[in-house]
Amino acid sequence: MTSKAISVIEALVLKAMAGKHSVLEAMGRYARGEGGPAILSHMYGISKYQFRGFLQRLYMRAGSPVHAMLYVSMFVDHALKIPSVFNDDGTVCRICKKVLIDVFPEDHIKKTHGDEVRRWVAFVINEYRKAKIPGVIGGGSQQV
Ligand SMILES: [Zn+2]
I want to staple 72 with a disulfide (CB 3.0 to 4.6 A). Which of 31, 34, 41, 135 is the partner? Predict the structure, then answer.
């Protein structure tokens, strides 16, 4: 697992922990070529700017758009299993019980709960390895 792949996994983990699973689902479909940013943003009820902003960050983390989409398609389904750390209206962090006002949720998680983030990154890598079936495209000997 390269540091760039791990960096992409971390971005997916932060998004899931922030409770933005719809953004991950939209990005997963985009990575599989199932629609453009405008239609997928609309389908999942998220802002086009949020979608495009996340896409740009993934490109930067992966080093190229091609790698970003490869890593997203490999890992997004496993990241979707991670529960939100926030309460239902997204204002209280369940880990530290802090009320978050005017704070970008991913920033709070990254700064305050790094151990949890690392634990979930390891979880995604482990789930990916468990799901790999040798001899099938996308699995087996593929080096990341
Ligand atoms: Zn917290």
Answer: 31
